[in-house]
Amino acid sequence: MSPTILRLPLLSGLVDYDANALRSDVSAGLSIAAVGLPSAIAYPAIAGLPAETGIYASIAPLVAYALFGPSRRLIVGPDAATMTVLAAVLATVLATPGVTTDRVAVAALLALIVGALCLVARLVRLGVLATFLSRPILTGFFAGISLSILIGQIKRFTGVDIEAEGLIGPVLELAREAASIHWPSLLLALGCFALLQVARALDSPIPGPVIVVLLSVLLSFFFDFEGLGIAIVGNIPEGLPTMSLPQIGDLPFDTLLVGGAAIFLVSFGAGIITARSFGALGGYQVEPNRELSGFGAANIAAGLFGTFPVTASDSRTAVNFAVGGRSQIAGLVAAATLMAVLLFLGGVLRILPIPALGAKLAATALSLIDLRALRQIWRVSRMEFVFALIAMWGPIGLGVLNGVVIAIAATLVYLLRKSMYPHGALLGRIPGRDGFYKLHREPGARPVPGFGACMIQGSLLFFNTDYVEARLLNIAKALPAGTRWLVIDASAIPQIDSTATAMLAEVCAKLKKSGIALGLAELHGDARAMLHRAGVIDKIGADMVFSGMEDALDEFENRSESPAE
User: Fold this and answer.
1) Neighbours of 212 (CB within 10 A)
2) Which CATH superfamily is domain 423-561 in?
3) What is the CA radius of gyration of the chain?
4) Are the beta carbons of 390 and 140 closer than 8 angstroms?
5) Given this model, what pLDDT does residue 15 score?
6) pLDDT in tens, 465-474
């Protein structure tokens, strides 16, 4: 086999493949299909898409990721958070005047856009985007998404059409329309939901969603749920999906691109969290840039086969790990199994009751609320907890798509706030020991007479220069009388921009008027070059720029002993 062919992750992973691995992969693949089928049928409802698109999304993307994805054990497929963002994007696009394209075609086009964005991000090595939304903000955002999903299940549970939006409005409307509740649907949904919780609590060997699907289909068959007025899935097209390119037609491309970017950011962020979690469990490293190739291929396949954007699936990957899947052959077996379901079991799935799917979605939504993580964030950082609440409020109060914008904005504000106020400290010496120590941290540290020393921790950029300037001038004012030098330990200043160079020049001039010389120690190469180009080194004096704080102190002492000093 040629080296070029072996570059495909699937084939390179089969070099030492054996019969035992094949048996494990076949078992894992069948289990993945069994667990994934209920989600595949239920998740499209979040975005108003037909049930078969969820099965399509569990076939073609799996094959594509198996060929091009770097992880041997990660399984891609429909994801609740991604579907909720997709629903918001579809609503925005289809509300544009003059748009006549059907919902499925728009979803497929968005999958192609997400796939293309993944590949572009891979080319320019933007895997770092996976960490753009911080864990606290993602935790809050997913909690908000989950509440949106829960509210969206009111109709599936009760049969009552709800027009109100938000969190409280739909509940109040349901209370006003209580007489219209279809009680058989509600009882069935509550029973299925309870069964899911019991199966999860007891760690049932047969996954709860599988039990619910089998039991609800049998009950629907024997008691004619459709005749009782309980909504059912309805006809699912028989046969396999065909490859086609969705047409843009009259769609607003700018809205599609913005919506695709929102889906990409959320799906990639959620997918990498899943990939890293199971990577830690399996003892292998996850490289976000390489995962972009796999996710890109999976989404392009989804778009070409008429379905919606996908990402890493935590439930299916967990099953793969639990059963002992060894390679992406497990994913291919799962895809083949779901093809067989489409070909031979479409009539059985037709009578699957909608309330059972609503129960599955409600259970999934609750699993997205990570109370343990929220409690941990509260204990560690009250400020980060506030940002998590802001991200949670976005999808509930302003809608899911606006919630993505709120999460991004909260991230930017969070980053800006962390950088606006760089930490600083006065430095001194401990008798009998080398080095400089922070005066507020080391009780034995003492300032050096005549020699002021401080440290700034963080980049000096345009938005924090006023704060840093005020801090340096206040430090200078508080120095004991007779202090002649103030040396800044710049080892923790990775970057300096042009605004900061002007600020340092101004501080130098103000300190000179007070009889204090400004010095810099341990400058990074880029920062030193910036100060040279701005002429700040000349204003400070090249002899006041030192390789380290010890060198600065030695030079200060030498000049103090010199008659010229």
Assistant:
1) 25
2) STAS domain (3.30.750.24)
3) 30
4) yes
5) 57
6) 999 999 999 9
